[in-house]
Every structure is written in structure tokens, then in C-alpha cells.
Amino acid sequence: MPVTDEAIEKIKAMIVSGELRPGSRLPKESDLAERLGLSRNSLREAVKALSIIRVLDVRQGDGTYVTSLEPNLLLDALAFVVDFHQDNTVLEFLEVRRIMEPAAAAMAARAMSDEDIAALRQVLDSLSDDPSLEELIDNDLVFHRGIAAGSGNTVLCSLIEGLSGPTARARIWRGLTEEGAVERTRLQHRAIFEAIAGRNPQLAHAWATVHVAGVEQWLRNTLGAAGPLPADGFQSRWTTAAP
Predict the structure, then answer these.
(1) Which of 25, 50, 89, 188 might form a disulfide with 55, Cβ 3.0–4.6 angstroms?
(2) What is the DSSP string of 146-200?
(3) Tens digits of residue pLDDT in 181-223
(4) Which helix (H) or strand (E) holds 24?
């Protein structure tokens, strides 16, 4: 095992065992390196790697601490990783969303507070009668983020948030090219909201499935008709499709 990987595993073991708990300060570098049988350089590289994925927090002049280790913090790295996806895998991201978002909507119908439901209604009501595509996508992201948070499951919420980027581009492309897509999105958002507000988990699940599956099926049909995506992904298709 490369020495940096070995150092990462040893620090991880200290955290998993509970020896280092959330918020704990790591021992001084020289002491920790000697204790773990590591060089200070390999330990330093391990700390740097673990800080990138938000397991450790390096505070200049103060020391290195274990972070809160909360899901929203640790899964932050997911959004970074999915940015490296190739556009021809966006269907796979939509398939995952089709599994997770209906579950989140059903959970929100059971768990979402009245105050958060009112806030979600305000998100929908804030959209003008003739929104630009950019306004619609921004509203869409806030709406889905509100439902995910309303599920009460921080892991699910963080996963959905991390997957939102790649599929947002697909929704933009659909809005530019498919007639009626904008109005259909608004109607489906309203239907999902009414099911949540009505405390109807099954209906919320069904409408969320229809909503995400619609984008997935449209993209599947479009890619099937148009062939593989070009090297620059959606960008050339936007340029061609934009008014």
C-alpha cells in the first residue's frame, strides 16, 4: 500500500474507532507521525487529502481538527466528482434521480412541517406567468431542494443535491427544444406540491416519478434519434437549438 494511503487508513481507523471524534483536534504532527509509524511527509499528504473531502479541517496557526462529519459536509465532495461526468452518462444520473426524488417527495408528505410547506408554496408562487428559462431552472432547483430537505433525511438530501448539476443541463436543453416543456414542468411541480401539502405520500411519489421520468424519456428519445453526443456535450446542441 502506498505510504500516503496507509496514512489515510490509519487516521480513518482512529476516527471510526471513536478515538478521534467530530470536533477533536489531532495530536501534534510529529507526535502523531511517530505514534502511527509514518513519516511526517506522508502524514502531511494524508491530512491534505482528508481535508479535501471534508473529513479534516486544517486551521492555520491552530491545528487540524476532525470536522462535524455530517452527511451534508462529507457528501459535498459528490458534487465535485459528478462534475467530471461525460454527457452521455447523464441518463444514468436521471435514473438515479428517478429512484431517489419520488422517495424524498413521499417522505416530505409525511414529515414536512406546515411552515416548510408554506415556504415551498411561496417558491412556486414566486415564478412569474411568463418566466425565462433561466428563471424556471433556478426555481426548479430551489423547489426540488426544498422537497429533499423536507424529507428529513440529510443523507438523501445531500445525494439529491450532489446529482442536481448534470441533470439541470438536460432540463435546460429540454426547455429549449421541446414544445410545452416549460408549462408541463410548472403543472407537474404544482401537482407534486399539492400531494405533499395534502399529506398524500403515494400521490407525491407518483407525480415525482412522472416528473423525473418525463425528462429521462425525452432525453433517451432525443439521444436515440440524434446519435452520440458530440465532444463538447450539450453545448453545441444548445447553440443549434436556441432561438
Answers:
(1) 50
(2) HHHHHTT-HHHHHHHHHHHHHHHHHHHHHHHHSTTHHHHHHHHHHHHHHHHHTT-
(3) 888 889 999 999 999 999 999 999 999 999 999 888 888 887 7
(4) none
d(CA 49, CA 224): 40
What is residue 58's three-state secondary structure? Answer: strand
- The DSSP symbol for 66 reads E
Q: Cα angle at 230 between 225 and 235, to 5 degrees?
A: 100
Residue that has been written with the C-alpha cell 434519434 in this structure:
225
Instruction: Give the up-direction half-sphere exposure of residue 178: CA atoms within 13 A in the CB hemisphere.
Output: 19
Q: Rounded to an integer, what distance in angstroms lies between the CA atom of residue 154 and that of residue 210?
A: 24
Whole-angstrom distance, CA of residue 139 vs CA of residue 182: 12
Cα dist. 225→155, 160, 166, 201, 229 in Å? 37, 29, 21, 36, 11
